[in-house]
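Tokens for chain A. Residues wanted.
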């Protein structure tokens, strides 16, 4: 039977129990829920034409079913979806931000950073969704364990200003034995610019004088990364 435009879809509470996201989570655990079902739990209800899960699927489809791209949406982007008001949009953004911070909390345990991939994995969660450039400093002890990571500067889409004095002030304050530098390229191009290469050389030379070696400089993009050390530029 054809349904008219004004008919309301069956709400979650009327579904078969195994199909309801809440009950599914309680019966089978959170790991079995799809991304759409998890988002449906956040928004609670859909609109006149879609259930919460159907609406969530559509939101994900608009983000190419990529949670990283979904995390880049703003409140203004989300409220364009019928059934997503200000409160629901804020709830989605808050949940995604909590997920990002959880990754940061895991990364900030005294883990060892040995390879360029280790460094990339450490920096990526905090830099992945940034629409502007930031320069971060990772400080390590003699065992290559993380002491602390600090944001040194924030800039625009195509660059940020870095002050060497701030870098080494932080390194001395935290008794760092070595440093790894990192900045992101929102453009998606991981290759260093001439300015990136010159800055890295200047910091490296200052590190030699201060007896705090610069182990690597990582450039992060959404899809890849560039390591100065791996490419023989350190």
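Reply:
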């Amino acid at each position: 039977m054809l349904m008219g435009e004004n008919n309301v879809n069956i709400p979650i509470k009327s579904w078969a129990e195994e199909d309801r996201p809440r009950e599914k989570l309680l019966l089978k655990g959170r790991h079995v829920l799809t991304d759409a079902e998890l988002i449906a739990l956040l928004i609670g209800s859909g609109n006149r034409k879609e259930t919460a899960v159907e609406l969530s699927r559509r939101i994900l489809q608009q983000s190419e079913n990529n949670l990283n791209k979904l995390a880049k949406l703003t409140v203004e982007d989300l409220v364009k979806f019928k059934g997503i008001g200000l409160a629901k949009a804020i709830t989605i953004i808050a949940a995604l931000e909590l997920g990002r911070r959880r990754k940061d909390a895991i990364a900030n345990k005294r883990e060892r950073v040995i390879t360029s991939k280790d460094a990339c994995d450490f920096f990526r969660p905090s830099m992945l969704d940034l629409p502007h450039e930031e320069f971060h400093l990772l400080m390590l002890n003699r065992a290559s364990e993380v002491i602390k990571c600090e944001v040194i500067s924030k800039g625009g889409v195509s660059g940020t200003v870095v002050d060497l004095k701030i870098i080494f002030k932080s390194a001395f304050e935290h008794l760092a034995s070595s440093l790894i530098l990192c900045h992101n390229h929102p453009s998606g191009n991981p290759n260093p610019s001439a300015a990136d290469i010159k800055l890295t050389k200047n910091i490296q030379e200052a590190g030699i004088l201060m007896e705090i070696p610069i182990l690597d400089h990582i450039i992060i993009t959404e899809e890849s990364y560039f390591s100065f050390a791996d490419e023989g530029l350190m």
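The chain has two domains: 12-104, 110-227. The first helix runs from residue 21 to 28.
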